[in-house]
Fold these 2 entries.
Entry 1:
Amino acid sequence: MITQKWLVKNNKYLLGVSHYPDSRIIKGAVLIFPGFSLPMCDVDYFTTKLARRLVKKEMYVLQLDPFGHGDSSGSLSEVTLESLRDDALTGLEYLQKIHKSNVFCVGRGLMANIFAEAAELPFIKGTIGINPVCIDPDVIKKLWEKTEVGVYECSKLLPGSEYSNLTDFSRDKLAFFEAIGARMRNIHGQYINTEIFKAMEDEGFMEVLKRCGKGLWFFTDGTCAKGYKTVTAGEIGCRTLDDYYKKAIVRNPLWQFNLIEDICESIMKRVED
Amino acid sequence: MQVPFQIEVGCNTILGILHIPAKRAPGSPVVFMSYGLNGNRVDNNRISVAFGRKAEESGIIFCRFDYRGLGVSEKDFWEISMTTKIEDSLAVIEFLKGCMQAEKHSLFILGFSDGLRIAVPLLKHDIDVSGLILWSPIFFIETKYVDSSIPKKFEREPVSKEVVFPFKGLWINQKHLRQQVVLGTEYEDFRKFSKPKLSVFGGNDPATLATFKQINNGVSDIHGAKNIMIPDADHLYSGSKWTQQLITETVNWVKDVSEGSIDK
């Protein structure tokens, strides 16, 4: 059973879709965030597909549009790391009322980093990230050093118009946008505050991934049989921009199906622990 | 006011959003949106949300929703087809008419890109449409612009074992794929539709060039048709300047066309 709901806090109106198991038995609750700038269904409805598989395993699932995203209030230009942290907390506090001990979060790109921080909350049992941003802060600094902090239309930050093959975009900047979970076709006409990039230059931002003992990170990796690998906090290391280029989400239904299956399995394993 | 709604079609839930203006005259317009093949109710650059917000300010009700199998509505993409999308649209329109009850209103259908493949067939149904809006319509396409991701090799969907074709990160079934690649009588139906029609094109959109030429050449023969070209815009109006123009032109046209109704 699915339903829509508004979560209202601090004059922000966040739209969510909740999935409730038909059996009415709830083994746990999961909050899902899409890639940065995308609506809650994400690319190829990835997060919706994930929510459906989790609910079949008797998990309560909440897909949420962060502030400035999808059907929620605000515009993308108003989104900061702080607003994303607030939105994560709003969703997680809601889930805490649904299930006391088995609360999980799943995010893609930058949202995975936000959830790595949220995992420090005692009631969070686990967090899963799909290609979280794990780039050397100096690389980010160098990439945007000529851009003053401010609000820009994305098409001005990263000019280009070949959306099908992306040949006329700067490869590194495009890879960076993909790393945060954005898709050029979706973000190019929106405004963004580059304060977010500045905040990601902070050493501590990536460090959270390394110390997040409750975290499990999935990274695209063509050398693995399934096309991705899992990494835990102790194993995580910086990746290159090229590691994200056209790889932040693989647009192959079988890749997505297998990844979703593995995410569900790892959550259910922790539920049963 | 942005009101989430949900209705049931074939035991599956469809989720949508209604934008309702704070001030609205009786008989004011209702715009119903149908988007392209694998879109969603928010759509790229949140263009549908932006249109909804502008519609609210302009006294227009705007309805956007996810078809079954798309966005956040129930079912998987590989289970649906153009037929189910039309069923879903009719169910949502019936819901809208139920909400309006005896209150007079004028219904406009908005088809975005290949959303026209749903929007135009809807005109044949008994739903009393007052006007048709097409953003980046594709009635004709040159082969070189046909999407290279159209699948050729089938696979089995892992759970159901149904025959499906990979399409980007989704699976699409045979019927849907066939319906998608064969153009039907949409252009003729568009021409025959006797009520006002607005078509908006991007000036830098090769995918709609053939359609633009065709419609523009024959515009005098097409009753009630208006064409607008937004200079330099791409197929999805991926620039705030283009989006604003698209939305303003559309809202103004809807207000002009339905002016009589609003005054009542």
Entry 2:
Amino acid sequence: MNLKLALRYLLLAILSMIFLGPILFMVSSSFKPDEQIFSDLRSMRAFLPVGDVSLDNYEQVFAQSRLFLYFINSVLISAITVILGILVNSMAAFGLQRVVWRGQALLLALILALLVIPFEVLAIPLMMIVAKLPWIGVDAGGLTIVGSWFNSLHVQIVPFIANAFVIFLFYQFFKDIPLELDDAARMDGANLWQIYWRILMPNAKPVIATATIILFLAMWNQYLWPILVIQGQETRPIMVGIQQFFGRTADWGQVMAYATIVTLPVLLVFVVFQRRFVQSVAGAGLKG
Amino acid sequence: MGARNDKKGIAFTFPALFLLGFSIILPFLAAAVMTLTDQRMLSPNPTEFVGLDNYKRLLSIRVQSVPPVLDDAGTIQRDAEGNIRYVRSAPIERTSDGLPPYQELGVFSIGNSRYVVQVRDPIFWKALANTFLFVLFVVPFQIGAALGLALLVKNPILGRTAFRTFFFAPVVTSMVVVSIVWAFLYNENSGLINQILGVFAGGGVVAINWLGNETLALPAIALMSAWQGAGFQMIIILAGLQSIDEQLYEAARLDGASEWQQFRHVTLPGLKNTLTFVVVTTTIAAFSLFVQVDVMTQGGPNDATTTLIYHAVQSGFREQDVAYGASVAVVYFLLVLGVALIQRRIAGSAER
């Protein structure tokens, strides 16, 4: 019996090494000069930050790529989309679940039907639409009309605010909040907006956390869309930044430092919200 | 239901509806219309309606038979090595319909006859085959791994949460980052994987060019993708395992069922719905393979890793043939829709 348990732990240890190995290799190598990365390859040292460790690679990466700019771009894109997304989608769910109006059943069915359409199908036509769409920009202190959404931050935000799946999540959650709460608030003279903002949303913290994680992950990992609509550096997100850096350098340590920086924010969210995180991601999978 | 209020109901829902219309419904309709035109990204010529030409270009396929060379007596001629000699296949004709000419995709023989398969867009057909091949590699492997992991960490053993976190860690890592790190792991001369294989091979040198080899590149990407995603399916399968009644296992044990029999007759039937769901979502995700290919191989070597979405982006964006790229994406969508409909039928018959 004990042998069986020992074997099980051995298997789990090997599997843990397989699943963590590449990530440990990435982080450890980011602190090492290339010669040491290569000489460590044939031992366990490949996975440990030992030997001639320094922050040189990190300094080099910041010096050679506008990593800081790309990082801020991605943070802005993700944060604004998360905030607006939670507001817009929860409002829609509230309108569909808490208010009675004509056509709402049809609209709910339509929104759920949209879940079948993958973004990959929409990317090229949407690119053609935003190419010629005007936007009001700020130029030298005055407002100007810009003739295209290309090479902007908003082109990476606006299409991803409304999210049928997040609406669905809020809708399901609101269903379980008793109507008596609404009625009590209405007795106290609350209007619909106040019921939404003061009664439902404060009760919806778990689903807000889930939506935050889902939207943040999706936005931080954006790759296909920015490839299509962002050419310059000014509004480039970090995923395109690292891909381009990878394409033009032969320095492993620097690429690993870049990769570690890109992974850090997600890892942070993961560590802080671990339980919630796993449940959300699994929940996102269970939408069928 | 809450208060009846038509105006307020619409007001709450409108922002999301407007944005969904802009980012999903409008481009979806635009895709349908666009694929019937010859629209390009930048073109001096006005866009024209071309009917189904894009789909003809994509899907045209024909098989031409090439007869063996016969002498006057009607016997088959052979070359010095004894191979049958065939009539030189007719040169590919110029087309007057504005579509690209047929090109040879492959050759096969039945008996003494040889057949040439011709298509108008060989890369599309390779992409289609590669996409299906990738699905066939990654789906069983990833779900098999996920099921194994779930069973390993299901029972309360010390460190269970830690192991779950370890297996889930790659899911958290972005696919672009994973692809870059694994490009180093797969490196021919100093990649970690070849080095480890070298250690296991008794200290010898192993130099497999994983991503540069036509046969290995796609399975290598599939292996990496399974590594990245298995932890995700593991969590879903764990949820499914928890919903199986423990009494079923007890009853099975009382009947003297072995662990394998318990797995076969209690676990698997209990997981039927979960596994159906996991297979379908993994399949649909696998059909959209793009990031790994774009970062690691750019479709190569020799189109061996070109996928449908990669081909769509390549022709629709990088070659600026927008209408054609959108048409490739529509074919991809129909495939995904087909998978979703099959799932519905299976799920429906399971409920009955």
